[in-house]
DNA sequence: TATATTAGTTCTACAATTTAGAATATAATG
DNA sequence: CATTATATTCTAAATTGTAGAACTAATATA
């Protein structure tokens, strides 16, 4: 198995999938990313990252069977796997631990 | 000026520079990285990242004037700039905010 | 039932970050 | 001054990050 490294953008997208729950499909994720970061992102960037995350085993996905409001293709809904969640937690804990060692930030 | 994005490895290295203070030179940073992550890293990886971080204005550096124990080239000591520190804090705050929105992690 | 409209994914390509390791430089010591 | 130890600098390649065009499918409406 490959190393389970997590890039910056990958980490944020993984977190967004967790936050969005049932609504975790590419378009919505891109929207949410933009509203939370004030930073533009292309839909292609989101899709290819979501694919990579799936290949690594951090996400699963399935086509939504529902009927959209106006029309359009069916959504692909993403879900975090147990491994994905663990990797996310490890990344968080590691950063927290580093911040605690940073002089002047120990109790802030 | 380019966008001030911070990659995953860049962020960790920046934090390590802050933690190491006077001892923040490439070799030591690499050692510290390995001991904190249980993950091997090449010295070249550290050097090129430190350079990039400097070009972005997140780090400054100067040659140490001291004499080492046995021999060897003089160290290049790195220091975080005010911008570097701000970028680091922003990255941290953003992640914290995302975790707070993640159902099941709000108070943990 | 053909066509326009809307919503969404897939594909292709390129830029930036991350990674490794060889080459080189410098200082102390015998 | 040759050898050894300590570091940096350089070169190159793999992985991530990014953009946008092409494509697909469902619905509405004429």
Automatic annotation (TrEMBL), chains A, B:
- Pfam families assigned: PadR
Q: Where is the Transcription regulator PadR N-terminal domain?
A: 20-90
Name recorded for this polypeptide:
PadR family transcriptional regulator
Native organism is Fulvivirga kasyanovii
